[in-house]
Every structure is written in structure tokens, then in C-alpha cells.
Write a structure and sequence with these properties.
Rossmann fold; homodimer; alpha/beta; DNA-binding; 15% strand
Chain lengths: 342, 342
DNA sequence: TTTTATTACGCAACCGATTGCGTAAAATAT
DNA sequence: ATATTTTACGCAATCGGTTGCGTAATAAAA
């Protein structure tokens, strides 16, 4: 690979007969440069095929105009929608977005964090890997004063900016809905319990059970990464039980959809014999038959809020230790849980 | 936002009592540095919390160890899986991936291309926006000798490296399959026809019709962005026809799924009255009932191939003008098209 | 007309790592 | 013992913008 010589501000300077400093300023409409010079410089720049050298600029100015986003994986509707929200805000402020996937591996997350810091991103938005429970790899951002915001899968016991939804409340309402539909043996598919999102969903579920004086049965609570495969396995386990459940509240749609598939495959009637509810409201949820009752998770707004909060940090009072934004969710009732009709 | 002073190789140099040059070399195991010094330097670096300054390194070395990926949008299963393929190869070579979305807007694509070049990515992988038909914004990569590979949605009439699937053949086989199932009025949902992927799918479809002496009816071919909404509208249009089709071959699964939804909604029997086939094999395809017949599009492998080809370009003989890799697809027959059984 | 303010630009240091070239010291060869 | 090679490192320029400070020229104020 050969690289041709590239046009620099020095080339433009020579061409327009001004100093490189003037070119630099002219290109960003600095107030002290005359309109005429600005015009000349810009015209020459365009005509010569000039492209600013971002690394050079970043080195000197200590600003990269880039924010990083670290997620488990982008090929999930919820995540990619969230990222779009981040991009909307970032782009509107002239920033670009650097995306990294951990694939739910803490090691990759650590490596990604190093890379993000080395790239000197101006801010970082993070949704944690499933098993991460030590947050030391983010210290360098805190120490250096780089804005840092966690979203969705946020760390427990860490004073940091966070953006989440009302997981507890949503789970409570959903469970209550299932109870109202006549279910009294409700199972739960959860994620890693040190991950707040999943812990809170379980706690909301438990609280609803308690409030309605339903027994709590540990064998009905199963934890996994909530993938499609795991969804099938978890459902299998439930139906291997002496007394299977009459409802499943899954912490995500992916696993809930698998449960429906399992049931259809085994001839278990939904929602009559088994009501199913999910979380997120992926497109899948409305397409599967019967359509899946779920919680609308405002992915796009979560991304927007996280980015906004990130930019807010830059102007913020140093006295503010941390800030948590909670967004609202919405119960979406569909056929998969309607034993009684509305 | 305040930024604390950050550790540089100069700080390490002072600490270890060697020159910055030696630190720089030690950190990358340069052969001319003694093992002892390397150890000392690395220990000090870790202990002092050193993180390399990527912009500085990039500026001097003219290598960013980053490749760019430009796509329409990441929240599509096909695209995000493709990106994972790119990442696998890139990461294994120590490169990071910069992702940008055009949202199918040529203007955004142009702006993204500028940003990518300014960032001085070491290579660029592109899947074009739907309407892009002028490729001038990629000239700067060609001129500068930056490796450039198009994937999936590749440009027509441009001598560039490309990675695609056998769209024509796949479409031909699919259409033939529908004909064998007894369909003789087959509609087609296509994308923009200046986009090779979509043009070839249509041509494969047409070729199969011709070979089986079926009439070609322009009113049965509808073009759009193939989103979920568009899928419904297109199906509506088909059923507004005096004589509706008895099959639809859609250029993607998203629109095909919409067609099935439409049919179910209107009480049109699938596949009896209407056979439906898609393209891509998204998870949706296997979940909707009846399950969707489709073409398995090797998204992950496309990504891997594109990245491999990108890296290959760097060592390549300058005589090679361009190179096109074609990957194989596979017909996935499911209930949505099985009028006769297998 | 002299003084002060404003406008428009240049100088040169700087950001942090990389690298071609040079060299002292130690090792090996003659 | 002298010459040659190898090892291990330092010097200083360099990458391409950015920016604090200084200043000549022109305009406005006194």
C-alpha cells in the first residue's frame, strides 16, 4: 500500500500566501481573520483536495470530537437502536461515535476500555458486559475527568452517571398483569443478578408476588444470558418440573420468544396453559403468533439521554457527584398473556 | 470538564532513566532494546498508569490501526452480523473498527466518508446507501492508496474491490423453486435498481420466469427501501390489482415478513393462495408462522471476506486493478412456499 | 494631530510518539 | 593487542495542526 503525499495547511498557506496559522484559523472561521482571506483559504482548500488531519488536530488540541460507546453486541435491536439515539445527539453536536463490542466478555471490555482511552475519546457511554463486576478499568476515565455515563446495564455500587429505565416498576406491573390474568405460578427468566437491570426486574417480580400473597418458588427462577438457545433450554427445564408454571415473565424478548416457540412445538396452549411476557418490545414480539406481551423499552431515548448527560457533564458543577436518569417504560399487552381478555 | 495531566513516554523515561526513544521502542519490544530495559520500562508504564496516545502515534507513524466501516444502518440483523465478521478479522490483526451509518442518505454517506478520511483510517469497507450512484466521495481513498473494499451493496461501473454473494443465481433458484411449487404469477419486491444487489436479484427472477415461459408483468414488480412499512404498502398494492399474484419473492426478509402479516390479516392463505419468499434468513424468518422460505445470506462471512480482502490489498501487486469475491448462498425452504410439499 | 482601539495576521512553541542516523561500550574475531 | 562486529541506546528532526503572544496597519477617538 503506497500513500500519496497529502495536502496540509502548509500547502494551502503557500498557495494563498498566508501563514499556516492563518489557514488553520480561516478554516474554522476564526473571528480575527478577514472574510476575504477565509474565502480564499477555503477555496484553495477545496480545490487542492484538503482533508484535515484529525490525529494531528487531536494531539495538539486535546480534543478528538469523538465519543466512545461500549456495548455487549450491536446485533440486538435494543442495542443498535440505543446507539442510534446516541448518534443523533452526538452528530448534532459535531461529534462522531466510536463503537466497541464486548460480546459480553469482560476481558474484551477491559481491552476496549484501554483502546478508548488511548484514542482519547472525549467521553464514553457504557452498557456493561453481563459478568463484569469489577469496574477498575473505568477508573482512568474518572481520574482524567473524561465524561463517563453508564446506560441500561449499569454498575452497582459505583457513584457514576447512569441512565436507566424503571425496571423494578415495569417488572412489578407486568407480574401484576399476569396475576390479574389468573396466573398463580409465574416463572421468571433472569439475567446475571449482579447486573442491576436484571436484579431489579426480579425484585419487581418478587414484590408483586408478595403483594398478592403468592408463594415464592426458587425453582421457577432461572438465570442465563437470555439468548435464543438459552430460552429454549430454560423453558425445557421449567416443563421438566413436577408442577410446571402457568406463566413466564422473561427479562427479555429473545428468551420469551423462544419460550413461545417451545410451547408451540410441544403443543402447550398460549396463553391458556402458559402465559408469556417479555421485555424490550423488539419487532419479533409483534410478529410471533401469538403476539408477545412485553415492556416497551425506550432504547432510542435511552441513547439520547445518555449522550445528553455526557455532554452535560462537561459544564457541570464539580460538586455534583453523580446523576441518575430514569426513563419510563410502557406495558404492551398482547395475546400471549391475555387469558381473560382485557 | 478538567483533564488531569496524563502520563507520557517522557515521564516514563525520566522515571527509568532512559531516553524517550528507548521507552517508545521498549514498549513495542524493539529488538535493539535489552530485555532488562524492556522489563523496567513496562513495569514503570503499568505502575504509572500509562496509556499510549493514539493520535500522537498516528500522526507520526501515519498508521491509525483503525479501519472504517460504512453501512446504511446497524440495526439490521444482516448488517450487524456482517460487521461482526469484519471485527473478527480486524481485531485478530490488532485493528479497531470505526463504524458510521448513512441511514441510507447519500449526504450522510458523503459526510461520513470525509470524516473517515480525516481520521486517516488505514482502510475502509463500504456498503452503499440505497440511492448513492455517484461515487466521487471515495476518490480520495483511491487516490491516496487507502485500501477500499465494497461489500454487499457495491457500486456498479466502478473498478474497485468487491465482496458479494451470487445474487443472480440465488434469485434464479428461488424463483424456480416457486415455479416448481406451482406458482405462475410471481411478484417481486425489489430495492433500488441501480444497486447491483437488487438489480441482480431481479434479473435472476426474470431469467427464471423466461426460462419457464412465464409472462413478465411489470405491474408485479415493485421497488422501495424494503422496510417493514413499505412491505405492507407494497403488498396492498399487489392485492389492489385486478389479478393479484400467487407468490411474492421479496429481495429481503423484512418486507417478506410484512407480506405474510398482511396476508394473515386479510385472511389470505399462505402458501395456498400466496406463497412468500424472502432473502437474508433473519431470525424473524424462522419465527413467523408460517415460517418464511428465504435465502441464507452469509453475512458474517461477507464481513470476514471484506476485511480479509482489505488487508490483502496492502501487500498486493499494483498490477491488479480490482478483485471481486463472490460467496455462496443457500436456499432455505420453509412452509411459506410449500404448496406441494417437498 | 496625537492617542487609543481594532483588525488581521505571523512567529514559534507545543502536543506525544516515532525513527533515521550516530556512537559508546561490550563482545568477538583476527 | 588491534580490528571488527554487535548490542544498546541517545539525539534531534518530524508528523500536521493549534494557540498564546506580539505587532504592523488601519480606523476611531480625543
Amino acid at each position: 500500500m503506497k500513500r500519496a503525499k497529502q495536502v496540509t495547511i502548509y500547502d494551502i498557506a503557500k498557495n494563498v500566501q498566508v501563514s499556516p496559522a492563518t489557514v488553520s484559523r480561516a478554516l474554522k472561521d476564526h473571528y480575527s481573520i478577514s472574510k476575504e482571506t477565509i474565502q480564499n483559504v477555503k477555496k484553495a482548500a477545496k480545490q487542492m483536495g484538503y482533508f484535515p488531519n484529525t490525529p494531528a488536530s487531536s494531539l495538539r488540541s486535546k480534543k478528538t470530537n469523538t465519543i466512545g460507546v461500549m456495548v455487549s453486541r450491536i446485533n440486538r435491536p435494543f442495542i443498535s437502536t440505543l446507539i442510534s439515539g446516541v448518534e443523533e445527539v452526538a452528530n448534532s453536536k459535531g461529534y462522531h461515535v466510536f463503537i466497541a463490542q464486548s460480546e459480553d466478555m469482560t476481558q474484551k471490555e477491559i481491552s476496549n476500555a484501554r483502546a478508548m482511552f488511548s484514542a482519547r475519546v472525549d467521553g464514553l457511554i457504557v452498557s456493561l458486559a453481563m459478568e463484569t463486576h469489577d469496574y477498575g478499568h473505568f477508573d482512568v476515565f474518572l481520574d482524567s475527568g473524561t465524561p463517563l455515563v453508564f446506560v441500561d446495564r449499569v454498575p452497582a455500587n459505583m457513584a457514576a452517571d447512569k441512565v436507566v429505565v424503571d425496571n423494578y416498576e415495569a417488572a412489578f406491573k407486568m407480574t401484576q398483569h399476569l396475576i390479574e390474568q389468573g396466573c398463580n405460578r409465574i416463572a421468571h427468566f433472569g439475567g446475571a443478578q449482579h447486573r442491576d437491570v436484571y436484579r431489579l426486574r426480579k425484585e419487581g417480580y418478587l414484590a408483586a408476588l408478595k403483594q398478592h400473597n403468592l408463594p415464592i418458588d426458587e425453582s421457577l427462577m432461572i438465570y442465563s444470558n437470555l439468548g435464543a438457545e438459552e430460552g429454549l433450554e430454560m423453558t425445557q427445564r421449567l416443563f421438566d418440573l413436577p408442577v410446571p408454571p402457568d406463566a413466564i415473565f422473561s427479562a427479555n424478548d429473545t428468551a420469551a420468544v423462544s419460550a413461545i416457540q417451545f410451547a408451540k412445538d410441544k403443543g402447550i396452549a398460549i396463553p391458556k396453559e402458559l402465559a408469556v411476557a417479555g421485555f424490550n418490545n423488539d419487532r419479533l414480539a409483534s410478529i410471533i403468533a401469538p403476539a408477545l406481551t412485553t415492556v416497551a423499552n425506550p432504547a432510542f431515548d435511552l441513547g439520547k439521554a445518555a449522550a445528553s448527560q455526557l455532554f452535560a457533564q462537561r459544564e457541570e458543577n464539580d460538586m455534583v457527584a453523580s446523576n441518575t436518569t430514569v426513563l419510563k417504560t410502557e406495558l404492551i399487552v398482547r395475546e400471549s398473556s391475555l387469558k381473560k381478555g382485557r
